[in-house]
Structures are given as structure tokens and as C-alpha cells.
């Protein structure tokens, strides 16, 4: 477990969108060894929803556009995934 002060000192330097982007990248890299396009597609879609539903008072507007792009790419990845 990380101490709460370490997490708090990290988040003070960055906004919520940047922290969510870091978590998205870490989740994407963590799901790559599974070699499952469906898991990656679900991950991309889920983070698209998270970016889209994050209040705009906490993040800049370009994270909203990232969420919309992820919501377009995620289902396309899911439909092209092999069974």
C-alpha cells in the first residue's frame, strides 16, 4: 500500500485528467500481456466513458474529446476482435 501523503503529493502537481490518462495507460499496458483484443476494447470503452463523465470543472476540454474518441475506437476494436 502506498501512503496517502504520497498519492496526495502526486495529485497536487497534476489535474484529474492527467491522473486518469496515466491510469488508462497503465491499464492498457497491463492488459497487453493477456493478448486479448476484447479486454483491450473493453478497457478503451470504459475509459472513454470515464473521460466523458468526468466533470469539466476538474479537467480541460480536450479530455472530453479524448473520451469521445475512445468511445468510437473501443466498440470498433470489440467488433473486430476474434472469437
Q: Extract low-pLDDT stretches.
A: none
Largest sheet: none
**What proportion strand?**
under 5%
Whole-angstrom Rg: 14 Å
Task: Indicate the structural class.
Answer: mainly alpha
Q: What is the strand tally? A: 0
Question: How would the global form be characterised?
Answer: flat
Q: What is the subunit organization of this protein? A: single chain
Order of helices and strands: HHHH
Helix content: over 70%
The tally of structural domains comes to: 1
Distance between the termini: 37 Å
> What do the pLDDT scores average to?
91
* Tally of contiguous helical segments: 4
Characterization of this structure:
This protein has one domain (17-80). With 83 residues, the protein is mostly helical. It starts with a helix and ends with a helix. Helix content is 75%, strand content 0%.
Secondary-structure map with pairings?
Layout lengths: L3 H10 L2 H16 L5 H17 L8 H19 L3
Helix pairs in contact: 2-3, 3-4
Q: What keyword list fits this structure?
A:
mainly alpha, transmembrane, DUF8006, DUF8006 domain-containing protein, transmembrane helix, membrane, flat
Condensed summary:
The chain has four helices and no strands. It is mostly helical and 83 residues long.
